[in-house]
Amino acid sequence: MRYLPLTDAEREEMRKVIGVSDVRELFSCMPSAQCRPPLDTLPRALSEPELAAAFKEFGRRNSFSGFLSFLGAGAYSHFIPEVVSYLSAKGEFLTPYTPYQPEVSQGSLQAIFEYQTMMAMLTGLDVANASLYDGATAAAEAVLLAVRRSGRKRVLLAGSLHPEYAAVIRTYAQNLPIELATVAVDEKSGRVDAVDLRAKLNDSIAAVLFQSPNFLGVVEDGGGIAAAAHECKAICVQVVAEAMSLAYLVPPGEAGVDMAVGEAQSFGLPLGFGGPYLGFMTVREEFMRQMPGRLVGQTRDLDGKRGYVLTLSTREQHIKREKATSNICSNEAWCAMRAGMYLAVMGKAGLARAARTCHLNAAYFARMAARMKTIRVVYPGNFYNEVLIEVKTGSAAQRAAALKKKGILAGVPLSWFADSQKERLLLAFSEMHDRAAIDRLLSALGEAS
Predict the structure, then answer these.
(1) Could you tell me how far CA 223 lies from the centroid of its own chain?
(2) pTM for the full model?
(3) CATH number attached to the domain at 65-79+347-447
């Protein structure tokens, strides 16, 4: 596409028509502290050698690579085969925007189709869409889908749902005729309180939405929650913040869940200051036409050759218009393709091995930490790859700060999300850790007490 800039004369004519003396007047409504300086105050341009030297200096200031990290809580570090980065960076995948014209988009469409197929297999459900923005917005879209599908207005959210996911759902629903209620967490087990759930379930409930593994690291009883929801014909939605768990735990569909949504960043997307991430949604077939986003399907042309097309596009820019299921205006198609490449490269055995290693590393830490007198493992028997500990002296934030000085990022203090959780620290483990790294963490936890 050609870039056609305006001439100085054209800019001057436009300025006179709208009645401003200077272009800066167009930005007068913005706080001056938030505005970038005029171009004439910027430093001079650097030559290529000078620019390379400047970036090397920036790199020397970045000390993150020297830290041993056990951060998680929705963003996870996993090994990414180099071939995934190489293939996904090829121009034919990286530069196309939207595969509206299937005759020139077969490569992108097939890659997305393969991603959808693998996500459906991992979740045990019938249909996967061609991705959403991230896990939090995917959860919010699931709430909207359930309300549209059921015609009911009340939704139950598990108290063990990621607080940021819950906040996004409330933002989506705040100006809609949707009522949100929270189901309590059983403090002893870390799971959804079954008694409170049944007390709040009735014929007005559109959906029950829970996370597993939940924000406390605990694996929920998805089958029990689904059965309770279905007794009053409510839709059961499972949120998955750590997609790697899908290769280790019972698939949501097999547990009776109707929809599985969440974050697939673990499948080949590196951590990068909050994005780009990859929201996913998989559903039973009867919910397919209410799904947001796109669905790539497989067909045959007039010559009988296999081809791929956008089977379903429920965006408002398409023929749906005001009947669209969502106002999502763009798509994480490249992230979905990259996730598909990661899953294909890892293969069934490789993915299962990585997922199992995540759990075994967490189990080793929990077993060794249980012997320590200065901390307590809150839920020692029902976790996947995240372990919640409670410090017996001081606060979790203080303990994390002390370990940071030792080069260890020892998890996420729950006080970031709730003042009442000052003693608790959530640690995440993956296949990137080895026994020596975990032993170093355990030793540092003891020294910092």
Answers:
(1) 23
(2) 0.86
(3) 3.90.1150.10
